[in-house]
Write a structure and sequence with these properties.
Number of domains: 1
Shape: globular
Order of helices and strands: HHHHHHHHHHH
Radius of gyration: 16 Å
Helix content: over 70%
Length: about 200
């Protein structure tokens, strides 16, 4: 899952949401100087990723992608699932997409002192492209994939994936519709259980 999903699945806790967004930008053990609930959000992000990657629906979608795209299926599905979520956001959230997206960026700017440098740079990209709300547009997904492709260390087809994703949209949307409710339940249980341990 990508930023929109991680932010939404963190629920109403702003610190947990911030950690959820930070998850892709923190390696190893989170810095102990971070607030405990932000660290929990990073761990929630990782738990969501493990659940997603091991889910039968996601595995089946990954297998449907042809070589050479299958090797990068995790990236492609994460981005496309955020697109699916953005398209039907009101189904999954009580807030409008634009409002949620703007509020998330405001929270991130307020937390700038504790953001990793790489996330600070990405926040500038988010501002410039109205993300994560912008993921409702396929063009924003294509732009993001081109950027990811350039950052990967080896030659890859990620930048050329949009025609495939558009062609497989019906299948991928069905996968998302079946899988996301289970992921949401998993995240809610994780948050509740973690809260009881504090």
């Amino acid at each position: 899952m990508n930023i929109l999903a991680h932010a939404l699945l963190a629920g109403d806790d702003a610190a947990l949401r911030l950690g959820g967004v930070m998850g892709d930008f923190v390696r190893g053990t989170p810095d102990l100087s971070l607030p405990a609930r932000v660290r929990d959000g990073i761990y929630l992000h990782r738990a969501i990723d493990v659940f997603t990657d091991s889910h039968d629906e996601v595995r089946a979608a990954r297998e449907r992608l042809p070589a050479p795209f299958r090797r990068y299926a995790g990236i492609l599905l994460d981005m496309w699932f955020d697109h699916c979520l953005a398209r039907d956001f009101t189904k999954w959230s009580g807030r409008p997409l634009d409002e949620f997206s703007t509020a998330l960026r405001v929270e991130m700017h307020a937390a700038t002192p504790i953001l990793p440098d790489s996330l600070k740079r990405f926040l500038g990209y988010m501002d410039a492209n109205d993300l994560p709300a912008g993921y409702i547009e396929p063009e924003a997904i294509g732009k993001a994939l081109r950027g990811i492709s350039q950052r990967l260390s080896r030659a890859n087809p990620v930048a050329e994936a949009m025609p495939l994703l558009l062609a497989e949209d019906t299948m991928l949307r069905g996968t998302f519709e079946r899988f996301f409710p289970q992921l949401r339940d998993f995240a809610r249980e994780w948050v509740t259980t973690r809260g009881e341990l504090l």
